[in-house]
Amino acid sequence: MNYLKNAWYCAGWSSDIGREPISKTFLEESIVMYRREDGTPVALSNRCPHRFAPLCEGKLKGDNIECPYHGLQYDANGTCILNPHGRGIIPKAAQLRSYPLVEREGTLWIWMGDAENIDEEQIVGTPFLVQKDQYASTTGYLKVKVNYQLFVDNLLDLTHAPYLHPDTLAGATEESMAPGKMTVEFVQGERDIQSNYFVRDMPATPQLAVFWENSAPGDFRALMHWHAPATLVLEVSLTETGKPKEEGVIVPVMHFMTPETATTSHYFFAIGHNRDIDDTEKTRVISEYAIRAFADEDEPMVEACQELMGGVLDLFALQPVLLETDVAAVKARRLLDEMILAEVNTPA
User: Fold this and answer.
1) β-strands 231-239, 265-273: how paired?
2) Residue pLDDT, tens place only, 236-256
3) Among 240, 254, 328, which residue's Cα sits nearest to residue 290?
4) 84 pLDDT exceeds 90?
5) Architecture per CATH, 125-344
6) Is 110's pLDDT higher than 80?
7) CA-to-CA distance for 13 and 4, rounded, in angstroms?
8) Which CATH number does 8-121 carry?
9) Which of 56, 104, 163, 192 could make an S-S bridge to 32, C-beta 3.0–4.6 Å?
10) Residue 225 pLDDT
């Protein structure tokens, strides 16, 4: 399967990586990650070029990683610096690939493409994770048995919420979703798509009700922003009718989909809230709502859809029926296809 290589993918949360080497597969490539003694994160190819042993099972010697099979050592740039056998000659091919790994606002980002094409301005910020005086937040991770683009489709069309998430994330009813009640806006940029929903006089969702002081309906907004290839930023809010968004409950949610293989993905997510930020119980409750929705509702449904696609990963090849609300997901798929094709056809 072709992936967009010249792009940033979430490799985990800052707390996931320490001095103990760990491995994850990104875009079908096995990666070993650890921190140098000064705390700088490192990402290298996980396979020792000698006998293809997994370096993640090796030991760190200072900033170097030692192969667990024959003891060859590689520095943080992937260069073999020690062959403990024979005359100690180091073959020229004893080199690991080094992947740029950047740490921003509690999030780790890996660049899987050509190093000369790196553009750190493309990294999506996660400011609420570090704005401790404005938001309380939690992070999480799921390994999902679905193609990453199917999950992106799911997130770009939030009209499934009343049917799939009635007891967790949904507040809209069939009446509030009727023509004229819900406003949906789609905006396309050079590398991004926005899918924004607005519903007036909607009851609080079960998740937002944790912070909603009364039972009266309010103005609901769900602003979803997709950044190619698979980073999605959602801001959900509820305000008193007619009031500006800033006066209401705001729950930012990050959805970072990183392909593992063609049919499995890493799903990193973060949830914040701007009300009662010192109330750890409320933070726990809204996080549980989100995890239930992601793990027990979204993932099983999208996995079931993938299974019934019979191994066909090209959604359009199956000629799906398209609805008006599929606009954002369709535009994102087509934009990503164009970007991948352009990358593949760019001379090396």
Assistant:
1) unpaired
2) 999 999 999 999 999 999 999
3) 254
4) yes
5) Alpha-Beta Complex (3.90)
6) yes
7) 22
8) 2.102.10.10
9) 56
10) 97
Strand, helix or coil for residue 234: strand
Token pair for 108? 């780790």
Q: Report d(CA 120, CA 71) in Å as an integer.
A: 35
Taking only the tens place, the pLDDT of each residue in 144-198 is 999 999 999 999 998 898 899 988 887 655 555 555 678 889 999 999 999 999 9
Alpha-carbon distance of 203 to 118, in angstroms, equals: 45
Radius of gyration of the chain (CA): 22
Residue 43 clears pLDDT 80, i.e. is over it: yes
- How many CB atoms sit inside 10 A of residue 172's CB? 21
Average pLDDT of the chain to the nearest whole number: 94
Tokens of 27: 């875009």
The per-residue pLDDT for 179 is: 56
The 8-class DSSP code of residue 208 comes to G
Residues 303 and 146 sit within 8 Å (Cβ to Cβ): yes
Q: What angle, 0 to 180 degrees and rounded to 10, lies between the N-to-C axes of helices 148-156 and 299-308?
A: 120
Backbone angles phi, psi at 338, to 5 degrees: -65, -40
Q: How far is CA 304 from the centre of its chain?
A: 21
- On the question of a cis peptide bond just before residue 229, with omega within 30 degrees of 0, the verdict is yes
- Residue 315 DSSP code: G
Total-model pTM: 0.94
CB of 227 within 8 A of CB of 191?
A: yes
H or E stretch covering 283: helix 280-291
**Which amino acid is located at 263 in the chain?**
T
Q: Residue 199's closest CA among 146, 253, 162?
A: 162
Encoded tokens for 85: 């056998």
The full length of the chain comes to 348
- Domain boundaries of the chain, sorted by first residue: 8-121, 125-344
**Burial track 205-230 (b if 16+ CB lie within 10 A, e otherwise):** bbbbbbbbeeeebbbbbbbbbbbbbb
